[in-house]
Amino acid sequence: MNVRRRHISAVALTAVAALGFGTLTACSSDSAAAGDTGSFDVVASFYPMAFLAERIGGEHVHVTSLTQPGQEPHDLEISARQTAQLEEADAALYLKGLQPSVDEAIGQSPIATKIDAAELTTLEEHGTEAGHDEEHGDEHGTEAGHDEEHGDEHAHEDEHGHDHEGGDPHIWLDPVRYAEVAEGVGKAFQKADPDHAADYRKNTAALVKDLKTLDEKFRTGLANRTTDVFVTTHAAFGYLAERYGLTEEAISGLDPDTEPSGARVKELQKIAKEDGVTTVFYETLVSDKTAKTLAGDTGLRTDVLDPVEGITDHSRGEDYFQVMEANLTALRTALGAR
Fold it and tell me: Are strands 229-232 and 113-116 parallel, antiparallel or unpaired?
């Protein structure tokens, strides 16, 4: 579909094909990588956005991801080559507030269709102890002590420059919010590529149906449990916790690289004892050192709770749905669900 690309020289096409972007399986042929198939070319910021584009676009789209499998998306820095790729695409699908370099590059690009997933649903503020403060108030002293110590670290822009001022960006971990985003992406694709609008509409409906089924699995799977509290290394699961009446206690904030204070570690040890926590969860794309240290100090076990920011050989599944179902299994075990 990208008519500008059809006039690029053979040398330029070879260069574009060699950029090394993470092309998804549906459109990963050599000709598609060169962008010379007449497809609707979509550049996605990272896996959850690329997954939506692939499922909704189907055979009509060529999807590339700016974030490689196994790369921590929060730390992505856009290269000059990737900036050039953006300028040649028909659409960009991203989540503003998660990857500042992506936000800047897309904001400055001349790309015709810019789809910000953050504008397709409602974002909320989630910090290190989002749900726990509401439920327990000052019981553990979290609101006064921890907020004073970390202040703006988790509220807006953290020490690594990750701007979360618009709210917690991890919306894809709530199947209901992710479905809202899918519907918005589907409408944007229909408007930008009207020749294939009927297929985009059909594919969107099928994806939303699958997400509703996933939501039902979480609701029923977590209905009968012995505790509501789970501990993670990274405060990525605020929306999931909110959706299913759980309380996430994160060792670090929204940035997975933030080191916890000694006071926070002691606080988590107390919470684990009082709330019957059995497991400290870590994720596949960051070190498990902190989780294992806390678990060892408190006599807890460790397990993986995957924020599905990328699929690798270490992921417990080959796509979003398989990994989310693996997360459900892990949560059921940790929460004593029957």
Answer: unpaired
Residues of the chain with pLDDT under 50: 2-36, 128-164
Rounded Cα distance, 337 and 328, in Å: 10
Instruction: For strands 229-232 and 247-250, give the pairing.
Output: parallel
Q: What is the pLDDT of residue 253?
A: 61
With H, G, I as helix, E, B as strand and everything else as coil, classify residue 164: coil
What's the pLDDT score for residue 144? 34
Burial (CB < 10 A; 0-12, 13-18, 19+), residue 308, is buried
Residues listed for the chain:
338
Give the span between the Cα atoms of 209 and 284, in whole angstroms. Answer: 28
3-state secondary structure 222-261: CCCCCCCEEEECCCCCHHHHHHCCCEEEECCCCCCCCCCC
- Report the alpha-carbon distance of residue 318 to residue 320 in Å, rounded: 7
pLDDT of residue 331: 98
Question: What is the per-residue pLDDT for 121?
Answer: 97
* Nearest in space to 186 (alpha carbons), one of 202, 168, 200: 200
Nearest CA-CA partner of 324 in 153, 196, 191, 178:
178
The separation between CA 37 and the C-alpha centre of its own chain, rounded to angstroms, equals: 30
Do residues 63 and 57 lie in contact, with contact meaning Cβ atoms separated by under 8 Å?
A: yes
Q: How far apart are CA 120 and CA 334, in angstroms?
A: 32
DSSP string, 113-130: EEEEGGGSS------TTH
Burial of 323 (0-12, 13-18, 19+ CB in 10 A): buried
Using DSSP, state whether 300 is helix, strand or coil: coil
Strands 229-232 and 279-282, bridge-based pairing: parallel
